[in-house]
Amino acid sequence: MTALLETRGLTAFYGDFQALFGVDITIAEGETIAIIGANGAGKTTLMRAISGVLRSDPETILCRGEAIGALAAPDILARGIAMVPEGRRLFPSLTVEENLLVGAYGKRRGAWTLGGIYDLLPILKERRNTPATALSGGQQQMVAIGRALMANPDVLLCDEISLGLAPVVVRDIYAAFPRIRASGAAIVIVEQDIGQALKVADQVYCMMEGRVTLSGRPEELSRDDIHAAYFGAPSHEHA
Amino acid sequence: MNMLDTIVQGVLLGGLYALFAAGLSLVFGIMRLVNLAHGDLIVLAAFLLLVLVSTLGLNPFLAALIVAPVMFALGYALQEVLFNRTLGKDVLPPLLVTFGLSIVIQNGLLEGFSADSRRISAGPLETASMGLGPVTVGLMPLMALLSAVAVVVGLNLLIYRTALGRAFRATSDDTVTAGLMGIRPRKIFAVATGLAMVVVTIAALYLGTRANFDPTAGPARLIYAFEAVIIGGLGSLWGTLAGGVILGVAQTVGASINPEWQILSGHLAFLAVLLIKPRGLFPRAVD
After folding, report:
1. Chain B interface disruption, residue of A102, A157, A159, most B CBs within 10 A
2. For this UniProt entry, which segments traverse the membrane (chain B) (predicted)?
């Protein structure tokens, strides 16, 4: 069976600087995977490569067996891969509702509509005519997630959605995830919050310095393994 | 009484200037591109209208309906093959390329049509006028002003009420994230420049029927358009309309004092606005 989305020996460069060294990741239909790692581990670069913001060698990223590594972002979206970018990147000239509607620009049909998003995240309906960047950080993150869902993705890439948010706000945002999973979308969560990642993921990948250093099902991974993969040295204080 | 007439004529003239400026304002608002060939493209459209009107005997308004899609296609192609390559962090390449295009268009028109000044005949409409209270207004200048208002209303509806308009604004905010939404910024820019060229066709219709023009008339039109955009504030189409009207009124008031002061007083009004409100009268809230 071919995977929904797969990277094979994916590399990435910023000029002379190599950010990814042969990354292999596999996502099945409807699966939720978490990619954890410290700052600079290459998680965001991986998301940028998959979403087409960075171009790669065609054969290093496969979607249902099709080589998509060299495609531009709009063509990646057309294959059902939508991204919630790091830092949210809402459009400041647009209201909350307009930001959501822009998410549907690619016109992929599916279960998610404006009404469905408002049902999932009711606060957005209350604030729908507000300029998007006037919202609180947590609400802006909800807009970014809703905007990506409006494309009715088969794969939802979520890059650092809890970064800079209070724990209670993060909990509210993650509360929406069971319903997103129920819609059938596979989810890729990039997190520095390991606890959150282990809670929601079917499969965890840990990255360090542009390489996958550990992968497995959350229940199979010991705390020490994760610590070593995350920081590059075994844990002493928590052993 | 006489002053009222002067101001009314100035407002009507301002409608024409707003038409010159609206396309420039649209393109700048979406992609921060200053098209130095804008005036020459107006003159090019005027010559296309002239050819249709003089050789086929078409009504100028009907001719404009034919020229508009041609100019849209020209604008789309120019953006796609030329201007898109110049957009980036550096502001100099688009200025140099559009300046070069301006020279190419002027010389192309000189080759094709000679340096003679021309005029598009609008028949009896040219001299038609109507009483409006104590003043008499020409029908064509009045239609130019109404067209300018219609263009601004139409473009604002497009920008604020349609999916294409949302894509314009989203691309203007952030091209990379717009790409993640399935928007192709280069296509969006090409459509925007195409639309600007439709507005240019409308401007050319009133330019060509109002006064004489020749292949070198473009740069002066560009200056008026540019001043109207700056007076109104970058990115605001209603501001651009107001800017055109202020420029027109300043010119007719100056001319009523001394005919030689018409152009000068327009430029002085522009400088005065820059001194008092450097960002224009109605700058956009963002950036």
Report:
1. A102
2. 6-29, 36-55, 91-109, 139-159, 188-208, 228-249
